[in-house]
Protein backbone atom coordinates (compact mmCIF):
# COMPACT_ATOMS: atom_id res chain seq x y z
CA UNK A 1 0.00 0.00 0.00
CA UNK A 2 1.30 3.42 -0.80
CA UNK A 3 0.54 6.79 0.70
CA UNK A 4 -2.24 7.55 -1.78
CA UNK A 5 -3.99 4.29 -0.91
CA UNK A 6 -3.76 5.16 2.78
CA UNK A 7 -5.25 8.58 2.16
CA UNK A 8 -7.96 7.14 -0.09
CA UNK A 9 -8.92 4.56 2.53
CA UNK A 10 -8.98 7.22 5.26
CA UNK A 11 -11.16 9.69 3.42
CA UNK A 12 -13.34 6.93 1.91
CA UNK A 13 -14.35 5.59 5.32
CA UNK A 14 -17.69 7.18 6.19
CA UNK A 15 -16.99 6.69 9.89
CA UNK A 16 -14.34 9.45 9.70
CA UNK A 17 -16.86 12.10 8.68
CA UNK A 18 -18.97 12.40 11.81
CA UNK A 19 -18.85 12.19 15.59
CA UNK A 20 -16.48 13.75 18.11
CA UNK A 21 -13.48 12.17 16.33
CA UNK A 22 -14.83 13.03 12.86
CA UNK A 23 -12.98 15.18 10.35
CA UNK A 24 -15.28 18.26 10.65
CA UNK A 25 -14.91 18.28 14.44
CA UNK A 26 -11.09 17.86 14.38
CA UNK A 27 -10.77 20.43 11.62
CA UNK A 28 -12.85 22.91 13.60
CA UNK A 29 -10.70 22.35 16.71
CA UNK A 30 -7.52 22.76 14.69
CA UNK A 31 -8.77 25.99 13.13
CA UNK A 32 -9.79 27.27 16.56
CA UNK A 33 -6.35 26.61 18.10
CA UNK A 34 -4.65 28.16 15.09
CA UNK A 35 -6.79 31.29 15.04
CA UNK A 36 -6.39 31.80 18.76
CA UNK A 37 -2.60 31.40 18.58
CA UNK A 38 -2.32 33.66 15.51
CA UNK A 39 -4.56 36.26 17.14
CA UNK A 40 -2.48 36.30 20.33
CA UNK A 41 0.80 36.44 18.39
CA UNK A 42 -0.49 39.28 16.21
CA UNK A 43 -1.69 41.12 19.31
CA UNK A 44 1.89 41.06 20.59
CA UNK A 45 3.89 41.21 17.36
CA UNK A 46 1.97 43.82 15.32
CA UNK A 47 1.88 46.76 17.77
CA UNK A 48 5.49 46.23 18.88
CA UNK A 49 6.67 45.85 15.28
CA UNK A 50 4.73 48.90 14.07
CA UNK A 51 5.91 51.19 16.85
CA UNK A 52 9.56 50.08 16.76
CA UNK A 53 9.50 50.29 12.97
CA UNK A 54 8.04 53.80 13.05
CA UNK A 55 10.44 55.16 15.64
CA UNK A 56 13.40 53.12 14.36
CA UNK A 57 14.38 52.35 17.94
CA UNK A 58 14.86 48.89 19.46
CA UNK A 59 15.69 47.11 16.23
CA UNK A 60 18.70 45.29 17.66
CA UNK A 61 16.88 44.16 20.80
CA UNK A 62 14.06 42.96 18.59
CA UNK A 63 16.35 40.87 16.40
CA UNK A 64 17.92 39.31 19.48
CA UNK A 65 14.59 38.34 21.05
CA UNK A 66 13.30 37.01 17.74
CA UNK A 67 16.37 34.83 17.17
CA UNK A 68 16.22 33.48 20.70
CA UNK A 69 12.51 32.69 20.37
CA UNK A 70 13.09 30.92 17.05
CA UNK A 71 15.72 28.71 18.66
CA UNK A 72 13.23 27.29 21.17
CA UNK A 73 11.92 23.85 20.13
CA UNK A 74 8.11 24.02 20.28
CA UNK A 75 7.64 20.40 21.29
CA UNK A 76 10.25 20.53 24.07
CA UNK A 77 8.71 23.74 25.34
CA UNK A 78 5.26 22.14 25.38
CA UNK A 79 6.44 19.19 27.46
CA UNK A 80 8.24 21.53 29.85
CA UNK A 81 5.20 23.77 30.29
CA UNK A 82 2.83 20.84 30.78
CA UNK A 83 5.11 19.46 33.50
CA UNK A 84 5.11 22.88 35.16
CA UNK A 85 1.47 23.88 34.61
CA UNK A 86 -0.46 20.70 33.94
CA UNK A 87 -2.76 19.99 31.00
CA UNK A 88 -4.99 22.55 29.30
CA UNK A 89 -5.26 24.98 26.42
CA UNK A 90 -2.83 27.56 27.82
CA UNK A 91 0.21 25.23 27.81
CA UNK A 92 -0.46 24.63 24.09
CA UNK A 93 -0.91 28.29 23.29
CA UNK A 94 2.40 29.37 24.84
CA UNK A 95 4.72 27.47 22.45
CA UNK A 96 2.53 28.29 19.45
CA UNK A 97 2.57 32.02 20.25
CA UNK A 98 6.30 31.96 20.90
CA UNK A 99 6.71 30.28 17.52
CA UNK A 100 4.55 32.84 15.71
CA UNK A 101 5.62 36.13 17.28
CA UNK A 102 9.13 36.38 15.72
CA UNK A 103 8.10 36.26 12.04
CA UNK A 104 5.27 38.76 12.69
CA UNK A 105 7.42 41.06 14.81
CA UNK A 106 10.49 41.06 12.57
CA UNK A 107 8.68 41.44 9.24
CA UNK A 108 6.38 44.15 10.61
CA UNK A 109 9.41 46.05 11.91
CA UNK A 110 11.26 45.64 8.62
CA UNK A 111 8.14 46.49 6.60
CA UNK A 112 7.63 49.82 8.36
CA UNK A 113 11.36 50.58 8.29
CA UNK A 114 11.50 50.08 4.54
CA UNK A 115 8.69 52.54 3.74
CA UNK A 116 9.96 55.41 1.54
CA UNK A 117 10.84 58.26 3.97
CA UNK A 118 9.68 60.98 1.51
CA UNK A 119 5.89 60.55 1.97
CA UNK A 120 6.45 60.30 5.73
CA UNK A 121 8.37 63.58 5.66
CA UNK A 122 5.64 65.14 3.52
CA UNK A 123 2.93 63.92 5.91
CA UNK A 124 4.78 65.25 8.94
CA UNK A 125 5.39 68.56 7.14
CA UNK A 126 1.70 68.98 6.42
CA UNK A 127 0.91 68.61 10.11
CA UNK A 128 -0.11 64.97 10.38
CA UNK A 129 0.25 63.50 13.87
CA UNK A 130 2.62 60.57 14.42
CA UNK A 131 -0.11 57.99 15.10
CA UNK A 132 -1.87 58.97 11.91
CA UNK A 133 1.38 58.88 9.94
CA UNK A 134 1.94 55.30 11.13
CA UNK A 135 -1.59 54.10 10.41
CA UNK A 136 -2.45 56.11 7.28
CA UNK A 137 0.89 56.58 5.53
CA UNK A 138 3.26 53.80 6.59
CA UNK A 139 0.89 50.90 7.30
CA UNK A 140 -0.89 50.85 3.91
CA UNK A 141 2.45 50.76 2.12
CA UNK A 142 4.00 48.23 4.52
CA UNK A 143 0.91 45.99 4.40
CA UNK A 144 2.07 43.46 1.76
CA UNK A 145 5.20 42.68 3.76
CA UNK A 146 3.30 42.62 7.07
CA UNK A 147 0.80 40.18 5.57
CA UNK A 148 3.66 37.95 4.43
CA UNK A 149 4.93 37.85 8.03
CA UNK A 150 1.47 36.95 9.30
CA UNK A 151 1.20 34.33 6.58
CA UNK A 152 4.39 32.52 7.45
CA UNK A 153 3.41 32.67 11.14
CA UNK A 154 -0.01 31.22 10.28
CA UNK A 155 1.49 28.37 8.25
CA UNK A 156 3.86 27.50 11.07
CA UNK A 157 1.01 27.55 13.58
CA UNK A 158 -1.23 25.35 11.42
CA UNK A 159 1.46 22.71 11.06
CA UNK A 160 2.68 22.91 14.67
CA UNK A 161 -0.79 22.93 16.27
CA UNK A 162 -0.72 19.15 15.85
CA UNK A 163 1.29 19.00 19.10
CA UNK A 164 -1.90 19.87 21.00
CA UNK A 165 -2.87 16.23 20.62
CA UNK A 166 0.14 15.14 22.68
CA UNK A 167 -1.38 16.82 25.70
CA UNK A 168 -4.83 15.31 25.37
CA UNK A 169 -6.38 18.10 23.28
CA UNK A 170 -8.07 17.70 19.88
CA UNK A 171 -7.23 19.07 16.46
CA UNK A 172 -5.86 17.24 13.45
CA UNK A 173 -2.86 16.11 15.49
CA UNK A 174 -5.22 13.62 17.11
CA UNK A 175 -5.17 11.46 13.95
CA UNK A 176 -1.40 11.50 13.77
CA UNK A 177 -0.77 10.80 17.46
CA UNK A 178 -3.50 8.17 17.76
CA UNK A 179 -2.65 6.63 14.40
CA UNK A 180 0.99 6.23 15.36
CA UNK A 181 0.02 4.72 18.73
CA UNK A 182 -2.52 2.35 17.14
CA UNK A 183 -0.24 1.62 14.14
CA UNK A 184 -3.15 2.80 12.00
CA UNK A 185 -1.23 4.41 9.14
CA UNK A 186 -4.37 5.36 7.25
CA UNK A 187 -5.14 7.68 10.12
CA UNK A 188 -1.59 9.10 10.22
CA UNK A 189 -1.56 9.83 6.49
CA UNK A 190 -5.12 11.18 6.57
CA UNK A 191 -4.27 13.56 9.44
CA UNK A 192 -1.06 14.73 7.76
CA UNK A 193 -2.94 15.31 4.48
CA UNK A 194 -5.55 17.39 6.26
CA UNK A 195 -2.85 19.53 7.88
CA UNK A 196 -1.20 20.07 4.50
CA UNK A 197 -4.55 21.02 2.90
CA UNK A 198 -5.29 23.41 5.74
CA UNK A 199 -1.88 25.05 5.22
CA UNK A 200 -2.68 25.52 1.52
CA UNK A 201 -6.09 26.98 2.37
CA UNK A 202 -4.30 29.40 4.74
CA UNK A 203 -2.04 30.47 1.87
CA UNK A 204 -5.05 31.07 -0.34
CA UNK A 205 -6.80 33.09 2.35
CA UNK A 206 -3.78 35.35 2.75
CA UNK A 207 -3.54 35.80 -1.00
CA UNK A 208 -7.19 36.89 -1.03
CA UNK A 209 -6.66 39.17 1.97
CA UNK A 210 -3.77 40.82 0.12
CA UNK A 211 -5.94 41.42 -2.94
CA UNK A 212 -8.66 42.98 -0.80
CA UNK A 213 -6.65 44.98 1.72
CA UNK A 214 -3.66 46.25 -0.26
CA UNK A 215 -4.31 49.37 -2.34
CA UNK A 216 -3.93 48.99 -6.13
CA UNK A 217 -1.51 51.91 -5.89
CA UNK A 218 0.80 49.78 -3.75
CA UNK A 219 0.25 46.55 -5.69
CA UNK A 220 0.98 48.55 -8.85
CA UNK A 221 -1.62 46.91 -11.04
CA UNK B 1 6.50 93.31 -14.25
CA UNK B 2 4.31 90.50 -13.01
CA UNK B 3 2.72 90.46 -9.57
CA UNK B 4 5.22 88.04 -8.06
CA UNK B 5 7.95 90.64 -8.41
CA UNK B 6 6.11 93.07 -6.16
CA UNK B 7 7.35 93.15 -2.60
CA UNK B 8 5.01 93.51 0.37
CA UNK B 9 5.84 93.56 4.10
CA UNK B 10 7.89 90.81 5.75
CA UNK B 11 5.79 87.82 6.70
CA UNK B 12 8.52 85.58 8.07
CA UNK B 13 11.32 87.08 10.09
CA UNK B 14 14.30 84.98 11.15
CA UNK B 15 16.36 86.57 13.85
CA UNK B 16 19.87 85.27 14.49
CA UNK B 17 18.78 81.66 14.06
CA UNK B 18 21.35 78.93 14.73
CA UNK B 19 21.02 75.18 14.37
CA UNK B 20 23.72 73.23 16.17
CA UNK B 21 23.55 69.43 16.32
CA UNK B 22 24.55 67.45 19.44
CA UNK B 23 27.81 66.40 17.73
CA UNK B 24 28.77 70.08 17.44
CA UNK B 25 28.08 70.49 13.71
CA UNK B 26 26.65 73.91 12.95
CA UNK B 27 24.14 73.63 10.11
CA UNK B 28 22.90 77.22 10.25
CA UNK B 29 24.91 80.01 11.83
CA UNK B 30 23.22 83.15 13.22
CA UNK B 31 21.03 83.62 10.18
CA UNK B 32 18.82 86.70 10.02
CA UNK B 33 16.41 86.96 7.13
CA UNK B 34 13.27 88.91 6.36
CA UNK B 35 11.08 87.00 3.99
CA UNK B 36 8.70 89.35 2.18
CA UNK B 37 4.99 88.70 1.95
CA UNK B 38 3.40 87.51 -1.32
CA UNK B 39 6.67 86.83 -3.09
CA UNK B 40 9.10 84.05 -3.83
CA UNK B 41 12.19 83.99 -1.65
CA UNK B 42 14.81 81.52 -2.83
CA UNK B 43 17.45 79.98 -0.56
CA UNK B 44 20.31 78.87 -2.76
CA UNK B 45 23.79 77.52 -2.14
CA UNK B 46 26.04 74.50 -2.51
CA UNK B 47 25.14 71.25 -0.72
CA UNK B 48 25.75 71.42 2.99
CA UNK B 49 25.14 75.16 3.21
CA UNK B 50 22.15 74.73 5.52
CA UNK B 51 19.48 75.94 3.10
CA UNK B 52 17.17 72.95 3.66
CA UNK B 53 17.72 73.14 7.43
CA UNK B 54 16.75 76.81 7.29
CA UNK B 55 13.55 75.97 5.43
CA UNK B 56 12.71 73.13 7.80
CA UNK B 57 13.09 75.39 10.83
CA UNK B 58 10.25 77.57 9.55
CA UNK B 59 7.69 74.74 9.98
CA UNK B 60 9.66 73.27 12.89
CA UNK B 61 10.58 70.05 11.17
CA UNK B 62 13.92 71.09 12.68
CA UNK B 63 13.92 73.00 15.97
CA UNK B 64 16.37 75.92 16.09
CA UNK B 65 19.05 75.83 18.80
CA UNK B 66 19.09 79.61 19.16
CA UNK B 67 17.25 82.62 17.79
CA UNK B 68 13.62 83.22 16.94
CA UNK B 69 11.45 82.81 13.88
CA UNK B 70 8.42 85.06 13.65
CA UNK B 71 5.49 84.28 11.39
CA UNK B 72 3.29 87.34 10.93
CA UNK B 73 4.86 88.78 14.07
CA UNK B 74 4.26 85.71 16.20
CA UNK B 75 6.93 83.27 17.40
CA UNK B 76 6.42 79.95 15.59
CA UNK B 77 7.04 78.05 18.84
CA UNK B 78 3.98 79.69 20.41
CA UNK B 79 1.44 77.54 18.62
CA UNK B 80 1.10 73.73 18.50
CA UNK B 81 3.43 72.30 15.88
CA UNK B 82 0.65 70.56 13.91
CA UNK B 83 -1.40 73.78 13.74
CA UNK B 84 1.67 75.65 12.49
CA UNK B 85 2.40 73.04 9.80
CA UNK B 86 -1.20 72.93 8.61
CA UNK B 87 -0.98 76.67 7.92
CA UNK B 88 1.94 76.08 5.53
CA UNK B 89 2.06 74.11 2.33
CA UNK B 90 5.04 71.77 2.11
CA UNK B 91 6.50 70.48 -1.16
CA UNK B 92 9.53 68.19 -1.28
CA UNK B 93 11.78 66.67 -3.90
CA UNK B 94 10.17 63.66 -5.65
CA UNK B 95 6.81 64.97 -4.36
CA UNK B 96 6.51 62.34 -1.59
CA UNK B 97 3.03 61.28 -2.68
CA UNK B 98 1.07 58.63 -0.80
CA UNK B 99 1.26 55.73 -3.22
CA UNK B 100 -1.78 53.92 -1.75
CA UNK B 101 -4.05 56.88 -2.39
CA UNK B 102 -5.45 58.13 -5.66
CA UNK B 103 -4.33 61.51 -6.98
CA UNK B 104 -7.53 63.22 -5.85
CA UNK B 105 -7.24 61.75 -2.35
CA UNK B 106 -3.58 62.74 -2.12
CA UNK B 107 -4.53 66.33 -2.82
CA UNK B 108 -7.49 66.14 -0.42
CA UNK B 109 -5.26 65.07 2.50
CA UNK B 110 -4.98 68.37 4.38
CA UNK B 111 -8.61 69.50 3.88
CA UNK B 112 -9.63 66.08 5.25
CA UNK B 113 -7.32 66.55 8.25
CA UNK B 114 -8.92 69.93 8.84
CA UNK B 115 -12.30 68.22 9.07
CA UNK B 116 -13.86 68.89 5.67
CA UNK B 117 -16.21 66.27 4.28
CA UNK B 118 -14.86 63.80 1.74
CA UNK B 119 -17.01 65.28 -1.01
CA UNK B 120 -16.00 68.86 -0.29
CA UNK B 121 -12.31 67.91 -0.08
CA UNK B 122 -12.47 66.06 -3.40
CA UNK B 123 -14.20 68.97 -5.12
CA UNK B 124 -11.45 71.24 -3.86
CA UNK B 125 -8.85 68.71 -5.07
CA UNK B 126 -10.34 68.63 -8.59
CA UNK B 127 -10.26 72.44 -8.65
CA UNK B 128 -6.57 72.39 -7.68
CA UNK B 129 -5.71 69.81 -10.32
CA UNK B 130 -6.86 72.30 -12.93
CA UNK B 131 -5.00 75.13 -11.26
CA UNK B 132 -1.66 73.29 -11.43
CA UNK B 133 -2.28 72.18 -15.02
CA UNK B 134 -3.26 68.55 -14.45
CA UNK B 135 -5.94 66.80 -16.48
CA UNK B 136 -8.77 65.90 -14.08
CA UNK B 137 -9.00 62.58 -15.90
CA UNK B 138 -5.98 61.60 -13.80
CA UNK B 139 -7.95 62.02 -10.55
CA UNK B 140 -8.59 58.30 -10.03
CA UNK B 141 -5.07 57.21 -10.99
CA UNK B 142 -2.40 56.23 -8.50
CA UNK B 143 0.95 58.05 -8.21
CA UNK B 144 2.95 55.26 -9.90
CA UNK B 145 0.89 55.82 -13.06
CA UNK B 146 2.09 59.45 -13.37
CA UNK B 147 5.33 60.90 -14.75
CA UNK B 148 7.78 62.66 -12.43
CA UNK B 149 6.62 66.08 -13.61
CA UNK B 150 2.96 65.19 -13.10
CA UNK B 151 3.72 63.81 -9.63
CA UNK B 152 5.41 67.07 -8.72
CA UNK B 153 2.34 69.01 -9.88
CA UNK B 154 0.25 66.81 -7.59
CA UNK B 155 2.70 67.65 -4.79
CA UNK B 156 2.15 71.37 -5.40
CA UNK B 157 -1.63 70.91 -5.58
CA UNK B 158 -1.59 68.95 -2.31
CA UNK B 159 0.37 71.73 -0.62
CA UNK B 160 -2.10 74.35 -1.88
CA UNK B 161 -5.23 72.37 -0.98
CA UNK B 162 -5.97 74.09 2.33
CA UNK B 163 -5.11 77.49 0.82
CA UNK B 164 -2.23 78.20 3.23
CA UNK B 165 -0.65 81.68 3.15
CA UNK B 166 2.85 80.18 3.15
CA UNK B 167 4.36 77.59 0.82
CA UNK B 168 7.63 75.88 1.70
CA UNK B 169 9.31 74.16 -1.24
CA UNK B 170 12.42 72.02 -0.75
CA UNK B 171 14.18 71.41 -4.09
CA UNK B 172 10.81 70.57 -5.63
CA UNK B 173 11.97 70.49 -9.25
CA UNK B 174 15.45 68.99 -8.87
CA UNK B 175 14.55 65.45 -9.85
CA UNK B 176 12.90 66.16 -13.21
CA UNK B 177 14.55 66.74 -16.59
CA UNK B 178 15.32 70.33 -17.72
CA UNK B 179 12.38 70.64 -20.12
CA UNK B 180 9.85 69.48 -17.52
CA UNK B 181 11.57 71.67 -14.91
CA UNK B 182 11.14 74.75 -17.10
CA UNK B 183 7.44 73.91 -17.46
CA UNK B 184 7.04 73.51 -13.71
CA UNK B 185 8.84 76.80 -13.07
CA UNK B 186 6.55 78.62 -15.54
CA UNK B 187 3.57 77.01 -13.85
CA UNK B 188 4.77 78.09 -10.41
CA UNK B 189 5.20 81.70 -11.57
CA UNK B 190 1.73 81.63 -13.13
CA UNK B 191 0.15 80.17 -9.97
CA UNK B 192 1.99 82.74 -7.88
CA UNK B 193 0.63 85.53 -10.08
CA UNK B 194 -2.87 84.23 -9.40
CA UNK B 195 -2.60 83.35 -5.72
CA UNK B 196 0.10 85.64 -4.25
CA UNK B 197 1.47 83.20 -1.65
CA UNK B 198 4.56 83.73 0.44
CA UNK B 199 6.85 81.10 -1.01
CA UNK B 200 10.17 80.00 0.44
CA UNK B 201 11.97 77.94 -2.18
CA UNK B 202 15.17 75.94 -1.70
CA UNK B 203 17.37 75.02 -4.66
CA UNK B 204 21.02 74.38 -5.47
CA UNK B 205 20.46 75.70 -9.00
CA UNK B 206 21.38 79.38 -9.30
CA UNK B 207 19.56 79.72 -12.63
CA UNK B 208 16.37 78.47 -11.01
CA UNK B 209 16.92 80.91 -8.14
CA UNK B 210 17.32 83.86 -10.52
CA UNK B 211 14.34 82.78 -12.60
CA UNK B 212 11.93 82.36 -9.71
CA UNK B 213 13.16 84.59 -6.94
CA UNK B 214 11.80 87.97 -5.94
CA UNK B 215 14.58 87.83 -3.38
CA UNK B 216 17.51 85.42 -3.41
CA UNK B 217 19.47 84.40 -0.31
CA UNK B 218 22.83 82.91 -1.27
CA UNK B 219 24.16 80.70 1.52
CA UNK B 220 27.62 79.29 1.94
CA UNK B 221 29.12 76.31 3.80
CA UNK B 222 28.69 76.53 7.55
CA UNK B 223 25.16 77.86 7.24
CA UNK B 224 26.05 81.51 6.78
CA UNK B 225 24.29 84.05 4.60
CA UNK B 226 26.57 85.30 1.83
CA UNK B 227 24.17 87.76 0.18
CA UNK B 228 20.48 88.56 0.26
CA UNK B 229 19.29 90.62 -2.68
CA UNK B 230 16.90 90.70 -5.64
CA UNK B 231 18.31 88.62 -8.51
CA UNK B 232 19.21 91.59 -10.74
CA UNK B 233 21.25 93.12 -7.94
CA UNK B 234 22.89 89.77 -7.22
CA UNK B 235 24.07 89.57 -10.83
CA UNK B 236 25.22 93.18 -11.06
CA UNK B 237 26.84 93.45 -7.65
CA UNK B 238 27.85 90.14 -6.08
CA UNK B 239 28.88 90.76 -2.47
CA UNK B 240 32.13 88.81 -2.61
CA UNK B 241 34.21 86.29 -4.54
CA UNK B 242 32.16 83.35 -3.25
CA UNK B 243 28.90 84.76 -4.60
CA UNK B 244 30.54 85.80 -7.86
CA UNK B 245 31.97 82.31 -8.28
CA UNK B 246 28.64 80.70 -7.41
CA UNK B 247 26.81 82.84 -9.96
CA UNK B 248 29.03 81.45 -12.70
CA UNK B 249 30.92 82.92 -15.63
CA UNK B 250 28.10 84.40 -17.69
CA UNK B 251 26.32 86.46 -15.05
CA UNK B 252 26.66 89.55 -17.25
CA UNK B 253 24.64 87.97 -20.02
CA UNK B 254 22.12 86.50 -17.59
CA UNK B 255 21.59 89.88 -16.00
CA UNK B 256 20.25 91.09 -19.33
CA UNK B 257 17.10 89.04 -18.66
CA UNK B 258 16.05 91.82 -16.31
CA UNK B 259 16.12 94.51 -19.01
CA UNK B 260 13.17 94.59 -21.44
CA UNK B 261 13.86 94.52 -25.17
CA UNK B 262 11.05 97.03 -25.75
CA UNK B 263 13.43 100.01 -25.90
CA UNK B 264 15.50 98.69 -28.81
CA UNK B 265 15.51 100.89 -31.89
CA UNK B 266 14.29 98.74 -34.77
CA UNK B 267 14.85 99.51 -38.45
CA UNK B 268 12.72 98.31 -41.33
CA UNK B 269 15.09 99.51 -44.09
CA UNK B 270 16.62 96.07 -44.88
CA UNK B 271 13.23 94.30 -44.74
CA UNK B 272 11.80 93.44 -48.16
CA UNK B 273 8.77 91.35 -49.13
CA UNK B 274 9.22 88.35 -51.41
CA UNK B 275 7.38 90.16 -54.25
CA UNK B 276 9.46 93.36 -53.93
CA UNK B 277 9.79 95.62 -56.95
CA UNK B 278 13.16 96.71 -58.42
CA UNK B 279 12.64 100.16 -56.91
CA UNK B 280 12.06 98.78 -53.45
CA UNK B 281 15.13 96.53 -53.72
CA UNK B 282 17.21 99.43 -54.91
CA UNK B 283 16.21 101.52 -51.90
CA UNK B 284 17.21 98.74 -49.53
CA UNK B 285 20.36 97.72 -51.40
CA UNK B 286 22.75 99.85 -49.34
CA UNK B 287 22.32 97.46 -46.40
CA UNK B 288 24.83 94.58 -46.42
CA UNK B 289 22.01 92.03 -45.95
CA UNK B 290 18.30 92.09 -46.64
CA UNK B 291 15.60 90.19 -44.69
CA UNK B 292 13.05 88.69 -47.06
CA UNK B 293 9.50 88.19 -45.73
CA UNK B 294 6.49 86.43 -47.19
CA UNK B 295 3.51 88.49 -48.46
CA UNK B 296 2.02 88.47 -44.90
CA UNK B 297 5.19 89.92 -43.41
CA UNK B 298 6.55 86.74 -41.77
CA UNK B 299 10.34 86.29 -42.03
CA UNK B 300 11.75 83.87 -44.62
CA UNK B 301 15.51 84.46 -44.50
CA UNK B 302 18.48 86.71 -45.14
CA UNK B 303 20.14 87.43 -48.48
CA UNK B 304 22.82 89.70 -49.96
CA UNK B 305 21.21 92.41 -52.13
CA UNK B 306 22.99 91.32 -55.32
CA UNK B 307 21.52 87.80 -55.08
CA UNK B 308 17.97 89.12 -55.30
CA UNK B 309 16.00 89.55 -58.49
CA UNK B 310 12.97 91.86 -58.46
CA UNK B 311 9.50 90.32 -58.60
CA UNK B 312 10.60 86.76 -58.07
CA UNK B 313 13.03 86.17 -55.23
CA UNK B 314 14.26 82.59 -55.01
CA UNK B 315 13.57 81.60 -51.40
CA UNK B 316 15.70 78.43 -51.54
CA UNK B 317 19.00 80.32 -51.45
CA UNK B 318 18.14 82.44 -48.37
CA UNK B 319 20.22 82.21 -45.17
CA UNK B 320 18.30 81.12 -42.05
CA UNK B 321 17.18 84.04 -39.85
CA UNK B 322 17.67 82.20 -36.55
CA UNK B 323 15.22 82.66 -33.73
CA UNK B 324 13.24 85.94 -33.68
CA UNK B 325 12.41 87.84 -30.48
CA UNK B 326 9.28 89.72 -29.40
CA UNK B 327 10.13 93.22 -28.08
CA UNK B 328 7.01 93.50 -25.91
CA UNK B 329 7.66 90.39 -23.81
CA UNK B 330 11.29 89.37 -24.32
CA UNK B 331 14.36 90.70 -22.55
CA UNK B 332 17.60 92.16 -23.90
CA UNK B 333 19.08 88.72 -23.25
CA UNK B 334 16.67 87.17 -25.76
CA UNK B 335 17.40 89.93 -28.29
CA UNK B 336 21.16 89.47 -27.90
CA UNK B 337 20.76 85.72 -28.23
CA UNK B 338 18.85 86.21 -31.50
CA UNK B 339 21.56 88.50 -32.84
CA UNK B 340 24.30 86.01 -31.87
CA UNK B 341 22.42 83.13 -33.50
CA UNK B 342 21.68 85.06 -36.68
CA UNK B 343 24.25 84.44 -39.48
CA UNK B 344 24.19 88.14 -40.35
CA UNK B 345 24.54 89.43 -36.78
CA UNK B 346 21.15 91.10 -36.97
CA UNK B 347 18.27 90.07 -34.73
CA UNK B 348 14.74 89.82 -36.14
CA UNK B 349 11.94 91.36 -34.06
CA UNK B 350 8.43 89.99 -34.59
CA UNK B 351 5.04 90.75 -33.08
CA UNK B 352 2.81 88.23 -31.33
CA UNK B 353 1.57 86.96 -34.73
CA UNK B 354 5.11 86.34 -35.98
CA UNK B 355 5.12 89.30 -38.40
CA UNK B 356 8.35 91.25 -38.74
CA UNK B 357 8.45 94.52 -36.81
CA UNK B 358 11.98 95.31 -37.84
CA UNK B 359 15.57 94.22 -37.35
CA UNK B 360 18.30 95.34 -34.98
CA UNK B 361 22.07 94.93 -35.22
CA UNK B 362 24.39 93.50 -32.55
CA UNK B 363 26.01 96.89 -32.14
CA UNK B 364 22.61 98.56 -31.60
CA UNK B 365 21.82 95.93 -28.94
CA UNK B 366 25.23 96.59 -27.38
CA UNK B 367 24.38 100.29 -27.25
CA UNK B 368 21.05 99.52 -25.56
CA UNK B 369 22.85 97.35 -22.98
CA UNK B 370 25.26 100.17 -22.16
CA UNK B 371 22.33 102.57 -21.78
CA UNK B 372 20.44 100.12 -19.56
CA UNK B 373 23.49 99.63 -17.36
CA UNK B 374 24.00 103.37 -17.10
CA UNK B 375 20.42 103.65 -15.86
CA UNK B 376 21.24 101.09 -13.15
CA UNK B 377 24.60 102.66 -12.26
CA UNK B 378 23.52 103.13 -8.66
CA UNK B 379 22.97 99.41 -8.15
CA UNK B 380 25.80 98.25 -10.36
CA UNK B 381 29.20 98.76 -8.85
CA UNK B 382 30.77 96.57 -11.51
CA UNK B 383 29.38 97.48 -14.93
CA UNK B 384 29.02 94.48 -17.19
CA UNK B 385 29.65 95.21 -20.83
CA UNK B 386 32.22 92.60 -21.71
CA UNK B 387 29.55 90.15 -22.75
CA UNK B 388 28.72 92.14 -25.88
CA UNK B 389 31.30 91.88 -28.61
UniProtKB/TrEMBL annotation, chain A:
UniProt topology in membrane: Multi-pass membrane protein
Keyword terms: Membrane, Transmembrane, Transmembrane helix, Transport
Recorded superkingdom: Bacteria
The keyword Transmembrane is annotated on this UniProt entry: yes
InterPro entries according to UniProt: ABC_transp_perm/SBD, MetI-like, MetI-like_sf
Listed Pfam families: BPD_transp_1
Gene3D superfamilies registered for this protein in UniProt: MetI-like (1.10.3720.10)
Transmembrane segments: 31-50, 157-177, 189-209
Subcellular location: Cell membrane; Membrane
An individual GO BP term: transmembrane transport
Domain ABC transmembrane type-1 residue range list: 27-206
Gene Ontology cellular-component terms listed: plasma membrane
Annotated family: Belongs to the binding-protein-dependent transport system permease family.
Full protein name: ABC transporter permease
Species this chain originates from: Streptomyces griseoviridis
Amino acid sequence: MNVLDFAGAFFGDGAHWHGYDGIPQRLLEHVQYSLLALGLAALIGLPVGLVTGHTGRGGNALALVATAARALPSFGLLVLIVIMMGFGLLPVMIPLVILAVPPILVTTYEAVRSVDPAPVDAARGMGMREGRILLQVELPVALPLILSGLRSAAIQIVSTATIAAYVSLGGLGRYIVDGLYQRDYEKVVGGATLVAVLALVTLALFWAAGRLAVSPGVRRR
Amino acid sequence: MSAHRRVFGALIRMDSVTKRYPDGTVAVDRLSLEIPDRSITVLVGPSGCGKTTTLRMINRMVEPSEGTILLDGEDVTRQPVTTLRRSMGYVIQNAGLFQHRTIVDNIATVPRMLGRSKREARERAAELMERVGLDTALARRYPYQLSGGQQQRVGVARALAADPPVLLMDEPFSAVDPVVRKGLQDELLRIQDELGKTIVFVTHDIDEAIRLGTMVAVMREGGRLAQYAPPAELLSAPADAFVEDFLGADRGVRRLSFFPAAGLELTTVPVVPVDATAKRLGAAAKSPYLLVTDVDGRPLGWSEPRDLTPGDIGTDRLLPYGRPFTPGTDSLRAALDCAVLSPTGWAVAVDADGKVLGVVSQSAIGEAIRTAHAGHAGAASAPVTGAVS
